[in-house]
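Extended Data, panel c. Modelled sequence:
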Amino acid sequence: MNEEKSNIIVVCHALTGSHHAAGYYDGENKPGWWDGLIGPGKAIDTDEFFVISTNVIGSCFGSTGPMSTMYPHLESYRYKFPVVSIKDMVKAQRILFDRLGIHHVHAIVGGSMGGMQALQFAIHFPKFATKIITMAATYATQPWAIAFNKVAQESILHDPDFKNGYYDPADLHENGLSGMAVGRMAGHISFLSPHSMQEKFGREYKRTDGLYELFGKFQVESYLEYNGHNFTKWFDPLAYLYITKAINIYDLSRGFDSLEQALLKVESEMYLIGFKDDMLFKSEEMQLIYERLATRKTLKSDYLEVDSNYGHDAFLVELEKFDSYVTKALHE
């Protein structure tokens, strides 16, 4: 951080992300989830910028969440934890920055739920950031995304090992939660696209399985099964329920008469990125935000539609298609 505190960038994470946005931690062989975008000489250049990434409230990676100890008792909150919104997540971060003596930042950057947070910052703390860069997000979560989240929620709630929310976290860390794994499989389908699945898996069959074995698997089935099951060993199911609820109720226009009125609060420069084949938060949803902002001639706003067949996860995978845009936005 420089003396003027003018080189700070806040990075907001998505549903299952965490503060570990880039680099390697001691004893780990996996970098942060946006390591390709953040670091020395990268789009978000840490030789130039001071980057802060936090866990959202409700997270299972450090911030207060449903499995945190409920002061002054020793029991976890579980269902006594309140429903939180994306706005609450942003307010909690703003309190943190105040405690750090940070009252203005150069930029806020985020994708998916992280992009939702960036947009909330722009509306509810309009003087906090010079620039907002948001991608693969929306102005309000639509029925298609809510439906996928519903599959995950129901799968968790109806798993007997979930024990109505009173499970032992150590058991799940050891054995996983099959219901949550099924829900995560549905999530993975929404993160990809038919084209990316075709490119990634085609109709390849698992080599060790026979085609006419009842439970023989296509490669795509093995992929969903492996990722779904492993996910349940490191992500808390109650945190998943609370965070997907926050995503479902997200609506930038809440508290205003319309989206247009909400966007009148924006004072930051706005850079929006949509992805052509994103089935979860469609590119036209991002474009609609831009069109509403573009009517304000005194506000700088810009929109990039990335030509991508990958799907929603393109914001995590196809960095080369938009990293130069992020660099340019940060330096304009």
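The CA atoms of residues 142 and 281 lie 8 Å apart. This feature is highlighted in the accompanying rendering.
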